[in-house]
């Protein structure tokens, strides 16, 4: 994302004081459009209707000295003196991509990325909505500590090796596959196991409900972040604070586990 900059003295600049409001509105919209499209301040005449403006508005900007007339449209006066150029934006994006790649390469050296990639490529497809009446096989081998399990009336399953302190849920494998898919396809800076732990936490013990919030938090770009992992965890923590403080499901599942232990 690029930004179109407007300084805090724009409203009182002599060029703006005598310019009609509709022309100034065009100046702002057109600046935003040019920043997004990386045209270095050039505004083609064909986009004028899309910017909800008329030729007289463009003419007023030319008269005020805010725009210059060019073949096929207009150009912002001194764009490169106040706004980032296409070359600068592309260079910044290139450096960001190199920095993220270097971080991922460093992470993959300890086997984290490789494990995630292998598990995702071999994971079964995730259904649109899980069917509580079905029995789903975990995509990973269960821990030796899993010795007993009991199916609850709501379709949940409690076992000793749950995630983030929660009992293992019947939808554990589906949520795990979804988290691994997010980590791989979006090349996230955290591994799937951490995403699954967040899913249990956000879903109050139901990882399938929680993975939907994980999806929302992780689908937003992390490009340009100094610390992508820290930024993603901050978004997930924000999701936690937005959830109602109702742990009745977790308490009920924990009680069931105590009965069978």
Summarize the structure in words.
There is one protein chain. By secondary structure, the chain is mainly alpha-helical. It folds into two domains: 10-82; 90-260, no CATH class. The protein contains eleven helices and five strands; from the N terminus they run H-H-E-H-E-E-H-H-H-E-E-H-H-H-H-H. It has helices spanning 14-17, 21-37, 55-64, 79-82, 86-108, 112-121, 172-185, 192-202, 207-218, 228-242, 248-260, and strands at 42-44, 67-70, 73-76, 150-151, 157-158. The strands form two sheets. It has a three-stranded antiparallel sheet. Helix 9 (207-218) packs across helix 10 (228-242). It starts with 13 loop residues before the first helix and ends with a helix.
């Amino acid at each position: 994302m690029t930004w179109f900059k407007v300084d805090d003295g724009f409203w009182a600049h002599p060029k703006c004081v005598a310019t009609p409001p509709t022309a100034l509105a065009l100046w702002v919209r057109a600046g935003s459009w040019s920043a997004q499209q990386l045209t270095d301040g050039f505004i083609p005449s064909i986009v004028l209707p899309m910017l909800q403006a008329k030729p007289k508005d463009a003419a007023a900007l030319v008269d005020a000295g805010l725009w210059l007339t060019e073949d096929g449209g207009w150009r912002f006066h001194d764009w490169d003196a106040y706004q980032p150029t296409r070359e600068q934006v592309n260079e910044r994006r290139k450096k960001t991509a190199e920095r993220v790649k270097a971080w991922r390469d460093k992470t993959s050296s300890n086997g984290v990325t490789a494990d995630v990639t292998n598990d995702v490529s071999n994971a079964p497809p995730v259904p649109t909505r899980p069917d509580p009446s079905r029995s789903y096989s975990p995509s990973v081998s269960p821990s030796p500590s899993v010795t007993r399990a009991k199916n609850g009336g709501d379709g949940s399953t409690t076992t000793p090796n749950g995630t983030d302190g929660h009992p293992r849920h019947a939808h554990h494998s589906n949520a795990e596959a979804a988290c691994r898919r997010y980590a791989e396809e979006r090349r996230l800076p955290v591994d799937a196991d951490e995403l699954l732990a967040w899913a249990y936490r956000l879903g109050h013990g139901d990882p399938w409900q929680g993975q939907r919030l994980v999806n929302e938090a992780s689908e937003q770009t992390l490009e340009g972040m100094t610390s992508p992992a820290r930024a993603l965890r901050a978004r997930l923590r924000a999701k936690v604070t937005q959830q109602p403080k109702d742990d009745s499901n977790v308490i009920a599942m924990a009680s069931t586990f105590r009965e069978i232990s």
